[in-house]
Protein 1
Amino acid sequence: MFEIFSLPYADSIQLPLASGPGPILVIITGYLLVVFKAGRKFMEHRDPYNLQGVLKCYNMFQICYNIILLFPGFYFLFVFQPYNFRCMEVLPQDHPLKNWERSISYAYYINKIIDLLDTVFCVLRKKYVQITFLHVFHHVLMPSVGYLIIRFQGYGGHLFFLCSFNVIVHVFMYGYYYSTIDGKTVHWKRYLTLLQMMQFVFMFGHCAFTAMQDECKASQGTLFLVSCSSAAMFTMFANFYFQCYMKKQN
């Protein structure tokens, strides 16, 4: 089973934080230690930090980052049209558009690592109630699966299209976060949750559709991994939606 890790990298160019399992394992381990142990110990006898200014800058950065990802991503998909949408395979290493595919996919992967700061800010503000299993599972899953896909499948391909939809969701999500920093009540939170649920249905459906194409050589392992992740995330978001908006509470 472990012989799979002796296989050469799917992409011939190994970029920082994606060139081996060490960096992402250290980052995820450090993240979990800060969230559940070291961070809480550090804040034990301290008042919550007022991070309004930091959060405004961070959320605006995330909005801009995702918009910057979105435009070249859509230009790549719909102007260059490098993929057959019935079967989106990773471009060959010598393809003239390979650098586009690699650069945009890598920027998305790095953004999933930056997203871990969401939880760190919760710790510094002592907003422990927001650090749910769903929250931590999602933040650990994205960079971990991202590394595995880069390692064994390469950059882009089938997931390029799905991640483009996720980028749209994140623009709205961080826009919502920015709107609530000053304590304002924003009434479209439930619709944001529905949008997040819809993306997982879309991801699962697109994976199933791709898997049904008999002549498609897209990675079956990747399709299976993304399908399982999407199903798990949809189930947890649906439970969150039920608990927050449908269940009668005292």
Protein 2
Amino acid sequence: MKLPLLLMNALNQAGLQGDWTLTPVAGGDTARSGVLEDGVSRYFVKQHRNPLLLEAEARGLEALAASLRVPRVVHCYSSSEGGVLILEHLPIASLTGSNQWMAAGAALACLHRVEGPARYGSHPDNFIGASPQSNADHGDWITFFTNERLAPQLQRATQRGLPPVAAERTARVIEQLDRWLPSRPPCARVHGDLWQGNLGQVNGEPVFYDPACYHGDPQVDLAMLNLFGGVPAAFYQGYQAEYPSTLRYQAWPVYDLYHWLNHYTLFGGQYARAVDDTARRLLASR
């Protein structure tokens, strides 16, 4: 297929000359993705009308690269017409078997056990899906999660039409976050958008991608991995072997609530019930 002008400009700026072909690939709800190849080289590319979104992803991948296997950033192009992110192409497959899940847990633990800055956030603002995500720093985790996570998402969801009962319950949860969240949990770099679709393997080695990084409670990543179904016990065996820690399950629904609100804002109706059910269960918990 003929290459879009935006992509041709990105390739020229990156110095990637060749007779390229682009094969669109499915997956992801935010950017248009494809595999770019010329018979010798192969890259994975993303295109989006908002170049800031792809710039943020590139920064996140580069931040994670010191601790995790991630696709290498080849070039990030920005213009008034949009942005292009050119990444190393990896033949990523799903995790299978206990050994691969254990390795994934150990890899994530290596990220989480590195002590971060003294303040939560402490990373350039980015996006969660297509929604802006502020990473303004705070010395208190509950304050951070209130002001930079739940409150902005509740405002967006309410503007989108979140039913008043769900909005009211969510507001009550926000007022009582100290019931479920510690004020000073460990402050580590987190992936930030670690559902199971953003984790895979290449030749048995775990690979992480599509991050929304910041510094915060490592439990946010563990919670999101279970958002659409639990992970195998081998994952936790690998994680605990590298970073022995208590799994604070009582916090996980709070972290889930952030993502359910975002899903409602981005995709609408079907997620209103998930928001309401999560808030209701939290308020009913002891």
Protein 3
Amino acid sequence: MMKNIKTIVYMLVMSILLSSCENVLEKFPDDQINEVIVFSTVTKANGVLMGVYNEIAGTSYLGAGLYLRAAMKGTDFRAIKPSLNERNPLRVEYEYSETAILNGNAFNMWSSCYKALNNLNILLAKIDEVPGDDGERNRIKGEALALRAMIHFDLVRTFSYPWIIGNGSSQGIPLVVEVTGAAIIERGTVADVYAQVITDYKAAEALLSPVENSRFINKTAVQALLARTYLYQEDWANSLIYAEKVISTMGSSSLMNISNFTRDPFNSESLFELDLIHPNNSVGSSAISAQLTNDNGGQEDILATLSFKTLLTQFADDPRGQFFQEDRETTDELSYAKYLDVAQEGSHNVVVIRLSEVFLIAAEAAARSNGDGASYLFEVTQRRSTSYTLSTLTGDALVDEIAIERRKELAVEGHGVYDYIRRGKDITRVASDHENIPLDKITIKFDNYQTIYPIPIEEINASGMVQTQGGY
């Protein structure tokens, strides 16, 4: 997959540049990229970056795949039993029945992410030489570094065991940080990947400006993603430091409250989100909104559980409990319309990270380091319902309370199963919520090999990469 890097990137960048470069396809062969043309100006270099944004917004990765996987393998959602295709990817993941061959959406995510990484590396190898404004060049470089870090982080938390298993010593994923024509099969360790992620994020932080337009990754978003990364790495001190940087920039007043809570795109909490509402960006029937609801012909392959609805509707004034609507299978209104079909385009923006998550990160990091975690938690909860009070819990009990709030606040935002396994907690489902799966899939141990994706068999066969230890 990673042997023909120039061919891969050629197809992407040439489609971007056709409108600005006449007769490019007539002048240069189709099996190579002419770097003189592609990197002749910062505007054209930025076109390569925009192509990467488009790639990561696709349904194989952030546009649906990662978020739906996280939800399906957790406790709060279930896949409707299909009448035709019993082995559709969502069902495979919901039932924990992945194998290296029958791997849900693993191959699609793997391919999309490494394609994006290859293109980012070509861009980073050339950007310092591109003629143009220094500020624009630094912005492009900073965004490319940040995206490279984010993709590696999502790959390692999806295809490798969490940090808590072996303190980062287990198998990582291949790090792709330079342009090479050879297949990269060395996996290293989880700790190796985290070190590179942090290095790239910090380099990006130095180049970017604070959030102005959350359509693109920015300094504030990078700091938020660093806080998330350190949380997964169990580095509570640094997680809190970076969360507080974001909170200092944004202020608690940017948190939505009961009266102005909205699912609208680019709201006051948005730090970085992918713009999928524009017709040119819509992913149609494969969008998260189409999977969760039957609006405008949506497929509604996923329903919330009754237990989750009970949790979210605990307080009548909590706006998050108003996302439920009539579904096509039950009488309990378990269609979870957090993502709306906007303007019948089949899509809703996908939020990569927002301010409420950062407050919850700060709460957990502080609670784990004997800090004032309850106050950060209360900054969020008091804005969701007047019934919430300042928690009096500390330590592990407070962390558990924060975890419940993360389920409520961050549902279908790419956390789900990850929030269980990174904390060493088994995925314990309520049996009455999950009646159409085998009994041995009601409770899944956090270190079960099927909590993570296998390396796709296509990659194993093509490159000889070593498969994940433990079951595949």
Protein 4
Amino acid sequence: MENQATQNPPQERRVRLYGRLVTAAVAGCAALGTVLMLLPSDRTATRAPAPAPGAQALTAVAAGVPAALPDLAVLIGERESHLRRHPQDAESWAVLGTAYVEQGRRTADTAFYPRADTALRTSLKVRGSAQALGSLAALANARRDFRAARAWGEAARKLEPRRWTTYPQLIDAYTGLGDYKAADRALEKLTELGSGPAVMARTAAVYRDRGRREDAAAQLADAAARAQAPAERAACLERAGELAWERGDLEDALRHFQEAVRVDPDQRAAQAGQGRVLAALGRTTEALNAYRMALAKQPLPQYALELGELYESLGLGQAARVQYDLLRDRVRAAARSGADEELVLGRFEADHGDPVAAVRRLRAEWRRQPGIEVADALGWALHRAGGDGEALGYARIATDRVHGGRVRSAPYAYHLGMIEKELEQYAPARRHLQEALRINPYFSPSGVRAAREALAVLGDVPDTGLPVTDAMDAKAVTPRPYR
């Protein structure tokens, strides 16, 4: 027993040591717990980390919604690097092509479009997919090639009918071609298959085109409230600002445009919108700065035209000509990349260049894609070139509430009224000019002035009954074509 006792002390010492360690550990944990209880809570520590920029852009382009430009650049770099090592990855080619389309659209750098075309066609060669076909439709819409967009979109729909992201591209294509019934059917299918901010924003665009401005505004408000990514929310806010501008609500428009730029500083359409509104408010210096900022990062021909016209209204002819030269340069660059800017060039030529050349360009555009935007522009160009008889038919197509032209547009009503005045149809002319100023009394510096002057000349014209109805077939009111 004594011998056993002499052997046990080391074991007993170990037990006592473990006991002291456990006691110390418990005491230490208690002290630490007390300290942690006294510290301010940090809820962010339990949150999952935010997605990487490339992943955020990937989510956006897959859903067909705007992506932040820095995130897009990261996504493009990642996919280009990946495809150098894995050139047979069809899905990555499709993602890269889609990202190129979005980058080109957001920056107005049409050089991205040929790259997008190559990437998407490569994806199809490796393995055909509805994603690649739908992105080719998006590319064609961005280039304003609505016939190609319709063909690619219908091919994507045939391959995968329940892929909802195809239908927004079909809506744009059908609208550009003047097929409003098909656009309505595509919208019905879209709302059956999808929901959320992207679907709401597309629904709002169709409602706006159908003259349902209040419904469009409600859809955009809901879309902006539910949008998760800043770029998507900013795009909804910009469209809401555009709706407010079109109805002449300057304060509401400016508020939406400013918020869009605050949410996403790369939202250049909202900056151009600010320029438009600030000019109407008489805040000329701010308006010029807003347009310059928009053009510096997204040099769209339309922005150059608007800024040039603002300069011209201020008597700054040389500054206006600089913008008009930029417009021509951008149209030529777009053409080299397969993009069609003939509509804005035709509008420019009609008012500031060669109206006969404008007629020639816009006739060709009408043959390619007979939407109401082109009808309005061609009618106005014909008027400016002296062909008012034929111009009337196209102006009525643009405002034809039966066959699709239901959008409430001050410029369209103004163009129709001025053409009717020239044809001595004074009662309808007066009615349509008044309508233009009622819709938006700020729609154009020169147009508003001309409309008011025309109404002063017309005076109290007796209303002798309805003019030839807007619903009449354009062929029935179009005389011999102007040459």
